[in-house]
Amino acid sequence: MAQDATAERVLAAVEQRREHVNAAIDEDLPMAEPERLYEATRYILEAGGKRLRPTAALLVGEALAEVDADDATDYRSFPALDGDEFDLMRAAVSVEVIQSFTLIHDDIMDEDDLRRGEPAVHRAYDTETAILAGDTLYAKAFELLSDTGADPANTVDAVNRLASACTRICEGQSLDVDFENRDDVTPEEYLEMVELKTAVLYGASAAIPAVLMGADDETVEALYQYGVDSGRAFQIQDDVLDLTVPSEKLGKQRGSDLVEDKETLITLHARQQGVDVDALVSAETPAMVSEAEVDDAVAVLEDAGSIAYAREMAEDLTERSKERLSVLPEGPARDLLADLADYLITRGY
Amino acid sequence: MAQDATAERVLAAVEQRREHVNAAIDEDLPMAEPERLYEATRYILEAGGKRLRPTAALLVGEALAEVDADDATDYRSFPALDGDEFDLMRAAVSVEVIQSFTLIHDDIMDEDDLRRGEPAVHRAYDTETAILAGDTLYAKAFELLSDTGADPANTVDAVNRLASACTRICEGQSLDVDFENRDDVTPEEYLEMVELKTAVLYGASAAIPAVLMGADDETVEALYQYGVDSGRAFQIQDDVLDLTVPSEKLGKQRGSDLVEDKETLITLHARQQGVDVDALVSAETPAMVSEAEVDDAVAVLEDAGSIAYAREMAEDLTERSKERLSVLPEGPARDLLADLADYLITRGY
C-alpha cells in the first residue's frame, strides 16, 4: 500500500535524525543544579516522542541548502544561504523544548495524570516543580535560539517568531480551557483553537530554519503555512482516528473522546446538524463502553456527515500544505516534507 | 535627614518615569482575545508596583546617552551610542513583564493568597488562568525585547541575557522551594538563592539597556553587577526591616517572618551561632504575637550578631554596587542610580 510506503519513508527519515536530535538535547540542555529541577526538565524530553517538529525543521534546512542528508551531516555547522555556517540543530532543539514546556504546563491545567504512558511531570514530581520545569525549558528555548551563530538580523526575526508562536499557544490553550465550560462552541471556533494551540508551533518549526538561513519572505511564509496547515490536519485527523481506528491499534478504547464528552470538530459539526451528541453513548468511562455502542454512535455521526466533514477537511489541509512546498528546491528533503504531511493524517497511531 | 532626601529624590525620579512606563505597558501589551486571559495578564501589572526595574533601565540609558531626562524625553526613539534610535522603553517594559510573570507563578507555587494587597492572580481568577497568564507574559517579554529596533547583534545578546536571567530565576525559586523542606541550609546557600531568585533580574534590568545601546563589555558587566549587588542588598535588608521597622510603618506585624518560621539570612546566621531559633517566638500567627515577644526575639538575634551581620552585608553590597557606577558618565542619571541603590536598603517600606 502507498500509505504504508509513505509511513515507512517518514519513519526512516525520523529515525535517521532522531539520534542526532537526542544527542543534541543532551548537549544543549546539560544537567545542572538544582538537580531535581533539571531532572524534571529532562523527564519529558527523555520520555520519547517522535521528534516530528525538529525533524521538520532539519528537513527544511536540508531542502533549502540542497543537502542530501546522511549520518555524517553536520547540523551543528550547517550552511545558511549566504554560505555562513550556523547551528541548525540548536534551532530544531529549541522548538522541541517549547513543545515540552507546553506539554508540562498543559498537563497541570488539564489535570492529566499520564503523558506518553508515563506519569505526567506534576505527578512524577509535584505541581511546583512542574511549573518551574516548564518555565525553565521556556527560558532555555530562547537561550538556544539566540545562540545558533546565525546572522543576527535573522536571529532577531526568528526569536520574535518563536515568542509570537508562544503567545498564540497560550491563547489556544486558554480557548481550550474556556470551551469546556461552554455548550455553544462552533466548528469555526474549534478550528481557531486548534490552529493556535497546536498548528502554530508546527508552522514555527518549518519557518524558523528558513528565517535563520536567510530565505526570502515568500519562502518563509509558505513554509509557515505548510506547518500550520499540516498541523491543523494532524489535530483534526486525531479526532477522526479516535472513532475509526480499532482499539488494539489505537492503544486505547476507540471512541474515548465521545465517552469522555470531549468536544471535537466531529461532535461540533454533528450538533450543528441537530444530532443529540450527549445521548450517543451512555457509558461513563472508556472501560465501560462496548464496541457495539461505539459502532452505533459512529453510524449516527456518519449519517450526519460529520466524520466525512472532518476527514475531508484534514485531507484538504494536507493537500494545501504540500502545495506550499513548491517554494523549496526539488529534492529528497522536500519529498520527505510532503511525505511527513501525508503521514500526519494516515498514521494508524 | 540625608536618608529622607535620598528617598525623596528617588521617589521623584520614579514618579517622573512611572507614567511613561505605565503608558508604555498599555501600548505594548494591548488587550486581545481571549479577553479573560489578557485581563489576567494585565491584572498584576495594573495592581501597581513602583516600577523600580524599568526605572533603573531608563536611568542606565539616560546615563549612557548623557541625556538629562524631562517629561518630554522620547524613550521610544532613544539614541544608542552610535546615534541610531531604538525603543528603550520597550526594553524597560520587557523586564517589568518578566517580573510580573515570575510573581504570578511564584504565588501559585507558594500558595500566597495576596499580592500587593490584592488577591493573587490564581485567587482572583484560577490556577489554570494564572499559569497561562504567566506563560503569556513570558512570551510577550521576548516579543518586546526582540522588537526595539536596536542593532540586531546587540538585540541577540540582550535576548540571550534575558533568557539566561529567566533560567536563573527558575533555579532560585526551585532552591527556595527546596529550602522549605530542609533544616540545614547555610547562609551561603541562602545568599545564592537570593541572587538567583531576585538579584539577577535587577542585574538584567541594568545591563540590557547598555547592551542594546552598544556599550562595551566592561560597562555592561559593571552595570550587571551594580544590579545584582543592589538587588541582593535589597533582599537581605528586607529580612532586617521585618524585625526592626515598627509594625505601623511596615504595614504588617513586625517579626512576621519569625512567627511564620520563614528562614532568613538572620535566622540562618543565628542557628550557626547556636541560637535555638525555633524557640524564639511561640505565637503561631502574626496576629497572635505580642510586641514584647518580638522585642525579646530581636534582642537574642542582636546578641548573636545576626542582625548586624545581615545589615552590614546589605550595606557592603550597596557600597560595592555604587562603585560599579563609575563606568558611567557623570551626571544626574548616574547619581540617581546611586540614590536608587541607597533607597533599596533604607526605604521604610
TrEMBL record, chains A, B:
Keywords assigned: Magnesium, Metal-binding, Transferase
Entry GO MF terms: geranylfarnesyl diphosphate synthase activity; metal ion binding
EC number annotated for this UniProt entry: 2.5.1.81
Cofactor(s) essential for the protein: Mg(2+)
CDD domains noted in UniProt: Trans_IPPS_HT
One Pfam family per UniProt: polyprenyl_synt
Name of this protein: Geranylfarnesyl diphosphate synthase
Species the sequence originates in: Halobaculum lipolyticum
Name of encoding gene: idsA3
